[in-house]
Amino acid sequence: MAERMIVVGGDAAGMATAAQARHRRDRDDLEIIAFERGHYTSYSACGIPYWISGLVDDAQQLVARDPATHREKYDIDVRLRHEVTEIDLDRREVVARDLDGGGEVRESFDTLMYATGAVPTKPDWARTDALGVFGVQTLDDGAALRAWLDADPEPRRAVVVGGGYIGVEMAEALVRRGLSVTLVERGEQPMSTVDPDMATLVTEAMRGLGVDIRTGVRVDALTERDGRVREVVTDDGPIPADVVVLGLGVRPNTALAEAAGMPIGPTGGIRVDRRMRVAELPDVWAAGDCVETLHRVSGMPVHVPLGTHANKQGRVAGINIGGGYATFAGVIGTAVAKVCDLEVGRTGLRERDALAAGFEFVSVIAESTNRAGYYPGARPMTVKLIAERPSGRLLGAQIVGWTEAAKRIDTLAVALWNRMTVDDMTALDLGYAPPYAPVWDPVLVAARKAVDALDPR
Amino acid sequence: MAERMIVVGGDAAGMATAAQARHRRDRDDLEIIAFERGHYTSYSACGIPYWISGLVDDAQQLVARDPATHREKYDIDVRLRHEVTEIDLDRREVVARDLDGGGEVRESFDTLMYATGAVPTKPDWARTDALGVFGVQTLDDGAALRAWLDADPEPRRAVVVGGGYIGVEMAEALVRRGLSVTLVERGEQPMSTVDPDMATLVTEAMRGLGVDIRTGVRVDALTERDGRVREVVTDDGPIPADVVVLGLGVRPNTALAEAAGMPIGPTGGIRVDRRMRVAELPDVWAAGDCVETLHRVSGMPVHVPLGTHANKQGRVAGINIGGGYATFAGVIGTAVAKVCDLEVGRTGLRERDALAAGFEFVSVIAESTNRAGYYPGARPMTVKLIAERPSGRLLGAQIVGWTEAAKRIDTLAVALWNRMTVDDMTALDLGYAPPYAPVWDPVLVAARKAVDALDPR
Prior knowledge:
In chain A, the strands form 7 sheets. Chain A has a 5-stranded parallel beta sheet, with helices on one face. Chain A contains 12 helices and 25 strands. The first copy, chain A, is 26% helix and 28% strand. At the A-B interface, helix 8, strand 21, strand 22 and helix 10 of A face helix 8, strand 21, strand 22 and helix 10 of B. Chains A, B: One of its GO terms (molecular function) is oxidoreductase activity.
């Protein structure tokens, strides 16, 4: 008789697990049931800002694999709008509630994949019944926001709270839809995912696009009228708002896991081993935005909610559940973003991370261009490197530029992954042709500058 | 009393050496004389096709540092239009001829930097006095070709002989100037710098731009009338031509070096050690397109004439001459090119190279896109990987795509440089955001495919 795997959460991590396991074990060997509380499976949450801005027309474009594909191609019993409400690890059972029909089902499992993702941080002031307040965590959130933006009369004034990736992307999306947008950030500047000297470039670009950026400002409350949000009340005064978008980050969605007795790490994510097994629990797996993982540079556990990790982790879990052997090697904090025509990339540790991890280091900023200076379309590119002192080992890198900049971070990410020193990096054989790089690639220019900073002559 | 360094050849390698040496030793310690037979110093020969096409307006834009800068900023005695005709390593003297004045000078040296670059391959049929036949090796060559293209009546039919980088770039440049262009290639297809399956994509794009590509065709002669070239005679019949551009590759310019007794390696380039010293000759250095270097993957000496290597080698030599310590670590064959709106990148070994070097390997081709499929501007990208069997070590990679493709090769180049296996590569933490990559980056998709090819389950 077939074993049964139950997948809790039908997005990237859960469905990648299911697909890989199915690839290695057929239905007679492994039955797979996936519960998903939303209306969609396997979608790109990262694409939501582009759907809001109108760059992407249709939510279906963001769905990598729909339920029918999972059912027909992978023989996975996908149950949408079913929210798992209880996991009993001793009895090997889950209870799921049908959010539309209202009924409850109880299913047993041999193998459990917990992939519930993350939930948005929601301070007390955001817990309101007022209409016009939105997270952008799920495709259902995105659909609600889009409907609101299309309502009559159309909202004209937007306030985005929080200046992380999703906050700046949403601010840009709303400006592009013609709204007047204020971004409220409690810290010194938005985009604290890069160091302040690099974030300044992004802030300038956002202001250039017309975003009103208020930094060092704390939100205290929302006011409403006739059931609709009306103002964001801050310690710097009220800001009128027809729509409020919350971009305050997310935390691992572990409520069910904790109740079931799964171990939670210091970041709040579920503790898993390199094969994505939940620590010390047989046949219980977890992957994606609900788990914590190893940062290969700091050596510390981190919570990095990102679709690319969720997919990789799901694949690893699925190979293992399927009888193969695979491990997830950890992350180095690589991320790229497009902000108001600026391209931003980062990998490894920021200065504050390097300090916190106890490294001594130098950091350098090198100005260069994406193409040979004489080639049409050459634009500035700024590369920052952080290198351990005195070893010269690369600890982190950041890039801000206009075009052909963001993905250059991959070159630095692979160097970092391989623990290269900046001295070794000056020798790298990188592609050179005038349309694509100056004869000294920006990465090499920065590496040379870091070598000089480590050992001034 | 100051020592004296003589630099033979005032382009990238020679002048990078001079600048670095000057950075570390001032004039009282080291006098520097640089002889350059052309009209320019430190220019981008790689930029010539864009000057020809008109994308770049002015030759001066291609000059990174002009003689005045070298003289004033670096205190280097640059002597243009001076061709070194003899090097006497025993007496430590060079003889140089003033190409304009006609006189000869004899100068002694303590340190010699030989940086004469490369000379174009010129078969017997190309040794003609007919006007309208051009190489594109130097800025002076480019100036002559531009003048010819601007002459009255303007040439209308161009034949480019040779389908390497410079050949395809020149074919495109001439099409963009409005000429009717035929590219004659002796081999099966142009762009043999990548494997045939990848080169096919380039050939199609060139044909799409209107280049008439004749492959498997041997040129036998040029015919002329009134002193001007008229036809390219081939074993497939004559091809009318108002202008002929030679793109048949280059060989190290070693005539003087050989006469002086410098050691020449199997590739025809000067043999140098890792510090860029000419093997076994004290205080004699060489760098750039005239030397051979180590290929880090095959372990064999190779001749790779490319400005980026010339600059790095010159910098290494200059640091050493200046009293520091630096080595050139070799190359892995990374190159990028823009061909008719296609972007092409390669690194490491092609299949034929891997065979010649005695590797057993698998090769895979993965189709993907530069951006998330739903993001506007997503275009196909094809990644080929060659991996050693059974170890999985990456041996080579090639990319062809429409936009944001070429420089992705750097990600693979750094992986190759660090001897990563394709299995390790599947774990790489690369930048993901919808404007820049699908959630599985094309590099990761290809690595996964290579893993499957190595170990099919």
